[in-house]
Write a structure and sequence with these properties.
52 strands; eight-stranded antiparallel beta sheet; flat
């Protein structure tokens, strides 16, 4: 039964007429709750059900699922739910009474009156024009007290945590909430404004239907004694003792958050036992009393994965023994206000161990709790089958092997195997696929580099693939491998399956991040679309720079590494923070007035650059490479600049939502590193051009470095001295390793913001 709260604002304290969206609720036209002039707020409960403590009602009329004992209401200016509620209050059921009319007769609809006042009405409805709205949030049956004089913003209220053990199956009430709007009809008329809020319970409901066969015949094998023993077979008939059947909900959640999200640290309850009740029309069909749990998620095979434990005694030859069945819940989540119903036909003997049990599955139904009935389609279980893995996804960080355990009732094989990785050399990026196999196998060679294998053993899956991490060589791994496959029963490959994904990341990973404007065309006549959402000092960059641009690669490249070459020019380099320790907001000027005044990422008044740390200009920083840095795309290309211009350009550069105040000149080592990656054909050319014998100068931390073009393997020169009349190209970089941990890692692509922070 759906719960709705109807509320009306009335201009003269008289409520009359039939309420829309509600089932024939009507208040006597002569009813006068309050003779005080002004505007009043009335609450009533829809569908002819009084809002009164002790009223029960659910699909079977037993479990108090629709009782409303208290109401906390909060009204906001529309679109301003982040602020405190303008009108709010707490109502208990005893205050919501049927009342009396002027002639002394009873009023048919319960209601509660609150004086709102005309001035507040205008403010709440943004002037009170017809059709204007306010936002409404209602909490019913909240345990404890909500501080109405404290924080009443919608975000805060929906973050409140509710605790209920659900240890007994008969609950007295359920926490509910609802969100919607009230619409102004005419502030000068009797019915000023109206609306309907649909209420949802925070908890979820779980029920079980069990149909059991009348008996099971089990064939026992008897081996005789002696040098040539005879083998005989004995049939034993087991009969279920249905009146002794019980069910247990295991690993439900005791706490829930009002917005329906999971309280990750909330405790679970292990067992909530309930008797099973017999269906009067079918003597072998039994129903469980409802179980309840707050929202939660899990992975198949988790230690605290929720399930139903069914207890069923069986008898044979006058002897009785207790058997157990483990019934997993469908999916990997229990969600707010859902009804999860399981229909099960039991035709096998269970396990004798309560903690283990025989795992069986049936038909699962997930419907909104308000649904009045579920059509039960039987699922006959004649064989104990199960297959579970601890997790469906794994990530290996510079690891070459992985063992995945699994639990299965039958022998397993693997199928639908794909092993691939992105190829970052190409622009746009392509995919290298080493295996794409649909047949079922137990062992497969994966290929790729040093090769690899995927093998399913008795109860484990073994993955092995050696990464190439020596970047002193010309061939090495720079992008993650992704392995996906399906584990399945060998004799039922489509019915019992688990799909698993393994991501194997090498010691160095290059991620290609296309600029959001990358689908636009940059021609020799220039680029005039969105210009890559690139800003320089608050101004959208839209000049034609094609004459000085050496490539038109619209990708940003993020280089993340934990290894450097053991030989060659990069052998002396080190991973670390390339930025100087002190802030420098002048960058060649007497003050920072060269920087535009704009809003910072963390809010507050407009300001200029304030906490900028450029690359260290001392030659000691020449050998430092950031452990993870982002390289600007070709959208950021510019004409050659002098050094002061280059420093200020990178400091005030913003691309595609990565804010200004965080970009800097690369170090010498980072320029050499970029050039090596191009020479090794790991990434496309980002520096210089493709003409053999050509050279291009780029600003770096301590001066400028010369990059050789074409197919040259000559590494860039070390830093050159300069004077401020020298002009060079610039390719800015962004310290991904540092700023990805910020509370504000990115901003709107279309708005310039200062991202420098005193961290």
């Amino acid at each position: 039964m759906k719960r709705t709260l109807t509320y009306l604002f009335c201009a003269c304290a008289i409520l009359c007429g039939t309420l829309s969206c509600v089932k024939e609720l009507q208040l006597d036209v002569n009813t006068l709750y309050d003779d005080t002039p002004g505007v009043h707020l009335y609450f009533s409960l829809g569908e002819d059900t009084p809002v009164k403590a002790g009223i029960t009602g659910t699909q079977d009329g037993t479990s108090n699922e629709n009782v409303i004992n208290t109401i906390d209401y909060f009204l906001y200016q529309q679109g301003n739910t982040s602020a405190n509620a303008m009108v709010h209050g707490h109502v208990i059921a005893e205050q919501i009474s049927v009342g009396t009319s002027r002639d002394g007769s009873a009023v048919s609809v319960p209601a509660y009156s609150v004086n709102v006042g005309d001035a507040m009405m205008k403010s709440l409805f943004s002037g009170g024009a017809n059709g204007s709205q306010c936002d409404v949030y209602i909490i019913a049956n909240y345990p404890g007290t909500i501080d109405h004089e404290g924080n009443t913003s919608l975000t805060y209220l929906q973050s409140l945590v509710v605790n209920t053990t659900f240890k007994n199956t008969e609950q007295t009430q359920f926490v509910m909430d609802g969100q919607g709007t009230a619409t102004m009809i005419d502030r000068t008329k009797i019915d000023a404004a109206e609306g309907v809020i649909e209420m949802q319970r925070l908890a979820s409901k779980i029920t079980l239907d069990v149909h059991c066969v009348r008996y099971v015949d089990v064939v026992n094998t008897i081996i005789g004694t002696g040098p040539e023993p005879d083998t005989t077979y004995q049939t034993v008939r087991w009969t279920p003792m249905l009146s002794g059947m019980k069910a247990n909900l295991c690993m439900g959640k005791q706490q829930g958050r009002m917005d329906g999200s999971e309280v990750m640290e909330a405790p679970t309850f292990k067992y909530t036992k309930a008797d099973m009740t017999r269906d009067e029309s079918i003597d072998t069909l039994y129903h469980s009393i409802p179980f309840y749990s707050y929202p939660r998620t899990w992975h198949n095979g988790d230690e605290e994965e929720p399930y139903i434990k069914l207890e069923l005694p069986w008898s044979t030859g006058g002897n009785q023994k207790q058997f157990y069945y483990k019934i997993p819940l469908a999916g990997q989540a229990i969600e707010k206000n859902n009804w999860y119903h399981i229909v099960l036909n039991v035709a096998i003997i269970g396990g004798e161990d309560f903690e283990a049990g025989v795992e069986i599955t049936g038909k699962y139904y997930v419907v909104p709790w308000e649904t009045h009935f579920i059509i039960n389609a039987e699922a006959e279980i004649v064989e104990a089958r199960y297959l579970t893995v601890p997790r469906s996804s794994y990530t290996l960080y510079n690891q070459n092997t992985l063992t995945i355990p699994f639990v299965s009732s039958h022998d397993c094989v693997i199928k639908d195997i794909t092993f691939s990785r992105p190829n970052t050399r190409n622009n746009p990026v392509t995919t290298d696929t080493y295996v794409n196999e649909t047949d079922t196998v137990r062992t497969i060679n994966l290929g790729a580099g040093t090769g690899g294998t995927l093998r399913v053993n008795d109860r484990t899956i073994e993955f092995s693939h050696t990464l190439l991490n020596d970047i002193s060589q010309s061939t090495y791994d720079t992008s993650p491998y992704t392995l996906t496959f399906t584990l399945c029963h060998e004799d039922a490959i489509d019915d019992y399956t688990e799909t698993i994904t393994v991501t194997q990341e090498p010691a160095m990973v290059i991620n290609v991040r296309p600029n959001s404007d990358a689908n636009s065309t940059m021609s020799s006549s220039g680029h005039t679309a969105e210009d890559g959402y690139v800003f320089e000092n608050g101004t959208r960059s839209n000049t034609d720079q094609s004459a000085t641009r050496n490539n038109t690669n619209f990708n940003m490249y993020v280089i993340t590494t934990s290894v450097l070459p053991s030989s060659g020019q990069l052998a002396s380099y080190m991973l670390g923070d390339p930025r100087q320790e002190e802030f420098n907001n002048t960058l060649g000027s007497n003050d920072n007035t060269w920087s535009v005044s704009r809003a910072p990422v963390d809010g507050g008044s407009n300001r200029r650059i304030s906490y900028y740390r450029p690359s260290g200009e001392d030659t000691a920083f020449d050998d430092v490479i950031a452990p993870s840095f982002r390289i600007a795309s070709s959208f950021g290309a510019s004409a050659p600049l002098n050094r002061t211009e280059a420093l200020q350009r990178c400091a005030s550069y913003q691309e595609d939502g990565y804010p200004a105040g965080r970009w800097r000149l690369p170090t010498v080592a980072e320029i050499v590193f970029m050039a090596k990656l191009t020479t090794d054909k790991v990434i496309p050319r980002l520096l210089g051009n493709n003409t053999n014998g050509s050279t291009t100068n780029y600003w770096c931390n301590s001066g400028y470095a010369t990059v050789y073009g074409g197919n040259s393997t000559t590494p860039p020169a070390s830093s050159h001295s300069y004077n401020n009349s020298t002009t060079c190209n610039v390719r800015c970089v962004y310290d991904e390793w540092f700023w990805s941990k910020s509370d504000y890692p990115t901003v709107s692509r279309t708005t310039f913001n200062w991202g420098d922070q005193d961290l």
